[in-house]
Structure formats: structure tokens, C-alpha cells
Design goal:
Radius of gyration of chain B: 23 Å
Shape of chain A: elongated
Oligomer: heterodimer
Low-confidence stretches of chain B: 1-5, 555-570
Structural class of chain A: mainly alpha
Strand content of chain B: under 5%
Number of domains of chain B: 1
CATH class of chain B: Mainly Alpha
Shape of chain B: globular
Largest sheet of chain A: none
Strand content of chain A: under 5%
Structural class of chain B: mainly alpha
CATH topology of chain B: Cytochrome C Oxidase, Chain A
Low-confidence stretches of chain A: none
Mean pLDDT of chain A: 94
Distance between the termini of chain B: 14 Å
Number of strands of chain A: 0
Number of helices of chain A: 5
Largest sheet of chain B: none
Amino acid sequence: MEQSLSRADQIALNNRRTGVTIFQISWIMVFVCLSLVNFQIRSNFAAWPPVGVVALDRVLPTIATAALLVSGIAARGGRRAVNAGQVTAFLFQWRIALLLGVIFTLIMGFQWLTVDGGGLGAQYGTIFRVMVAYHAVHALIIGWMMWGVQRSAVRGEYDDGNPMRTWLIEACARLWYFVIVAWILFYVVLYIV
Amino acid sequence: MASITVPMPGARPQTGTRIRVADIFRWSVDHKIIGIQYMLTAGFFFLIGGALAMGIRWELLTPNLDVVADGQQYNQLFSIHGTVMIFLWIIPMLAGFGNYLVPLMLGAKDMAFPWLNAFAFWLIPPAGILMLLGWFVGQTEAGWTSYPPLSTLYSLDGQTLWALSLHILGLSSILGAINFIVTVKNMRPQGMGYFQMPLFVWAVLATSIIIVMATPFLAGALTLLILDRVAGTAFFNPAQGGDVLLWQNVFWFYSHPAVYIMVLPAFGVISEVLSVHSRKPIFGYRAIALSSMAIALVGFTVWAHHMFTSLTPELRIPFMITSMIIAVPTGIKVFSWLGTIFMGKIHFTSAMLFALGFLSMFVIGGISGVMLAAVPFDIHVHDTYFVVSHLHFVLFGGSVFGIYAGVYHWFPKITGRMMDERLGRIHFVLTYIGFFFTFFPQHILGMAGMPRRVSVYAPEFQGLNVVVSLAAFVLGISTLLIIWNVIVSLRSGKKAGANPWRALTLEWATTSPPPATNFVGDPVPYADPYGYGTTGSKAYLDALERSYGESEYPSPDAPKTLQKVGAPAGD
């Protein structure tokens, strides 16, 4: 399908793809930065979490992470389906991706609210909350874009499979992968290391 | 090397699109208008930053308080001076050059994302205004580096506006850099590989890579600073388990590479100007191009040299070594530039004078930089005027001299008119002398122990401070000359023609100013953008003249006949 585009459209599409890739490489550095901040903050304490502070539960966030990973697979499947002209299959997989994203957000929202962040745990709780909230902002904005794409698909805007229009789906999927990669980094920093 | 002698197959002389004053204040997606918008906005903030500098030097004429009421006001002066000069003058000014020139040099009709380009620019004026509004709520006093606890516990609300403003400027910078990288990667014309690109484009590419990788760290640091100031967190407060060094690490991880963000595009300008005005091929093209990339890479490994006095001793040596290593690619450039002008047919145009001024002054800044990279010396002069001198030799002697060289070189392309060369030379002489005597004596003051960021100092430092302040006033006046030159030249400068310097890069293969779409058809680049002195390049330039008509040659010392002679370093 892309071969049928004009040269100008092909260049435009290529530019968009490169642009999103560079944005991803660039913006992941904020997440790297916050991860390094986490390490420097914890280096000031003899133990992490500080003695007397309740450590974060790992079970729920692991479930949330699994949900997020599966949502990425579903988004990828949706993207492939629309490229193959199967809008119904796209909608099914895309909605699964969205639903799993909502589950992830709710679980992490719950942990955000219940983390031990008072007294001795001030730094422990604060850095956790900042990192999770920063990630959530990205997840919500990109999730909202995915929701918009889904509504466009319902209206039939991708039925003709025009790559210039389905680019929006590709962009959303790529950005959703970004949310996933950023979260895996945070998951390792917050729960594993 | 080259066989192509027809730059614009089927090209007809075009009428350039003259940009009207109203266009400057309008949303436009034309990269040329956006480039000019960047330059004018940056120029406006340069005047503000310069006025603040004059205030600082006026205050320092005597050892006592004269101009400002107290140290707090003085802190506000130098804090905003530094921030404005870095974030609202040098960075956007060089971005302006990039916006105007990169698509033209690549033979493209515009940037990859024109709308995003306009959006990135229009973030700058409100961000600048936001920063200046700090004066109404208690301006920042923590210097451009804004170390906590000065920026957290001891600053007023202007500090929060400062942080918000930098956040916006950082976003603008990242969006612009993404646009540059995509444009360079995807929009080069047929026949222009990476190693046929003009060196200015290489410089912009390297700068953009630094911006996209480093600026997010500034965003992270500013987010934490704002949270500490408004949301009650304590990331930088040791009393509550925070860490003041956290800011220094994250801030310098951005801000040291930011030095290269400010100087690499100026390097690119210098590579263009030296080659064109020496009528010689650039010496060591690949070395210059790849050393920009090396600087971009090594630039990420040196940040902690700003923290030698607060760093744990075992980390000082590795950072000392990397800081010295980064002088190597910079040295490669300097020697390549010297090789370029060696035995060249040098035309002492205003652009060339500023490029030569850059070479001498930047080298002094580089040498003092290597001195500061040595831990024992750095500890001795830490927070003294030696550091102030070093950074100004790099950022004024480097970046600003490069900007001036670029203005004189590309003004004819942008406006279609030549600048007044006589005024340009007076501007150069005043700037060179004013600059040198403003900043060189500061080395001596620093080594003698005068601390930076003080409004009251020991009386024994007054003699040199008077010299510095008087020279600074000369430097300030010299700035008015280039403004006057721009105004006069816009009104009555000689018509430039398409290619007054007989340069080989593609921006000259179109009318001055270029038409809205830059070129008619797809321009064919000359295979070696610096291949002066070859039969092929002469044929290419002659073909350009046939297409666009002959250009006036502006310099009284190098009449057109001489300029066209095929000397060893001729066309």
C-alpha cells in the first residue's frame, strides 16, 4: 500500500517514523534521569527502604506489569490487523490493549495512594510517587490518544487502509511501546534492584 | 573530484521572496521566516542580557555598592544575565542559523516538520517573558546554575518562574533538534551523502544529538526543583534525606553538554566562513565532521569536572582525564582550520575577521579550559573570576564571534543586500579589543583570589576591575554598531546577488533572498562543498552566475577581478 503513495507522502511518512523514533530515544532519558535520581537518593540511606518503612508490595505491580506487556502485544496485533485491512480485528485487539492499560493504571494508582510515604519513609514514598506519577502522565496521555484512534476506527476512517491515515495507529502503538519500555525500567528500579 | 557543473538543471532566475516586517510577528511554517524569528528574538534577549552585563560592570567599577541596593539585587542581575545569554540568546540564535540554513544547504524545500518547527519557536517568546516576569515576584538569585539550597530555601517565586521558563525552553530545544535530525537524515538530495554535507550541517546534527540526549535530564532536574519549591518534596534538602549534590549531578549532565550545544554550531559557521573567504578547500573535512561527533559523545562524560570541590576524591581523576580528552577533538578542529587558511587567498571581510577572531579567542578559552580540567588548579581557582573569564572566552570568544561571523556571511543571502564592510571592520576592532580587555584581566583577578558573584570586593582588585568595566562598555557600544549596520544595510546596502562570496554550498545556488520554496526543481549539489580551486568548481560557480547573474563583490581589498583569478587558492 505504501508503494502507491506519492513521493512527497512517502517522504512525509518516513519523516514521521524517524521523528517518533528519535523522540522515543530522547524522552526515555527523562526516565533514565529519574532512575538515577532514585539511586542517588537511596545511596544516602543505610538501607532501602529505610529501616522502619514498609517495603512496596511486589505482587500487584508484577500483575500490572504483565498486563502492560500483554497490552503491548495486543496493540502490535491491532496495528498489524489494520495494515492487513482487517479493521474489526484491529478494534478487538486495540480495545484489549486499552482495557489492559486501564487495569495497569488502576493497580499502580492504588499503590501510589497506599505507599508508606510519611515520617521515615518520606524520601522512599516521594521518589516512588514522582516516578509512578511521571509515568502515569505519559500512559494517560497516550492511552487517551489510543482511545481517540479507536473512535476514529469505529467511524470508518481507516477502512481504506490509507497509510497516511493509519499512521496515527502506528504512532500510537509506537508511543505505547515507549510507555511499556519506560515502565519496565521503572519496575526494575522500584521493585527489583 | 567533481564532475557536475550545472547546479540547477533547467533553473531560471527566480525572484526571491522578501520577508516583510509583519511576517516576523506571524505564525509561519516557512523555515526561513522561522529562522529569522529565532534570530530577532534572540537578538532582543541579547540586548537585555547585555544591558544587565553593563549593570554588573558598572557596579564593579568600585569595590563598594553603587548601582544596586544590596547583594540580593546584584545576585538577580547576574542570575538573569547568565540565563538569558545562554538560553535566550546563544542557543536560539544558533538555532535560527540552523533553521534558515539547513534546508537550504540540503537543497530541501523546508524542514521535515514545518508545523513543529513553528511551534518550537513560538514556545520561546512566552518562556523568555515568563523568566523576566520574575522581577515582579522576587527574581531568582541563585545564578544560572541554581544550586540548591539557594534555589530552594533562599529564593523567591521568580525561581519557580525561572524553572518553568527553562522547562519550556528545553521542550522547544528538543522539538527543534528532532526536526533537525530528521531533516538531515531523510531530506538530503541525491548525490549528497553524509560526507558531502556542509560542515555546518554536521555541526547542527551533532548539536541536535546532544540536545535530544541531554536536555531530558534538564527536564528531570527542573521537575524535581519545581516539586521541592511548590509541592513540599525535599529531594535537595539533606535535613530530610535529600541531597544537594543530586541537583549538581543532574544539572551538569545537561549543562556541560549544553556548552557544546552553544559552541558546535559556531564551529560549523567557522568552517564555512574560513574555507569560503580563504578560497581554499577545507583541511581535514572528515576530521572536522567526525570530531563534532566525538565532542558530542565525550561531552557526556565530563560533567563532574564542575563539581571537583564537592566530588569524592576517587572520582576526580577519571573526570579530569575525560575533561582533558575532550580537548583533543576540539584541537583537531583548530588545527584543521589553521590548515584551511594556511597559504589561502584570505579576504579580510568582516565575516573572515570575526572567524579569525574566533580562532584566537576560542583557543585562549580552550587552554584555560584544560587548565581548569586539572584538579589542583581547579580547586585553587574554583568560584573565582578565572572561571568567569574561561566561560566567556568560550561562549563569547567562541559562540558570539561565530554568530557575528555568520551574520556577516549570510546576511546577503537572508536579505539580498550586503552589509557595510567598513562598519563591519570597526565593529570587529571594537569587539575584539573590548572583549579581550573585558575578559583577559579576569584570569589575573581570579588567580589573585577575587571570587565570582560578589558585588563588594577587596580594594586591591579595583585597578583591574576598572579596566574590565571600561572595556566592557566598549564591548557594549560595539554591539550597537552591528545593529546600526543591519539597519543601514537593510535600507541601502548594495544588492547582493545570488552568490556574492562565490561559495559552493547549496544555499548560494538560489536567489538572495530565496523564493518561498527555496529552489525551483531539485538542485544538484557540487560533489565537494569545499572544492575551491578546481576546474570543476569554477565551472559550477560560473554556471551559477549564468543562472542568477553576477554578484557584487563587497570587499574593497579584494576586487572582483582578483577574486576570480585562479590562484593556488582560487575558485
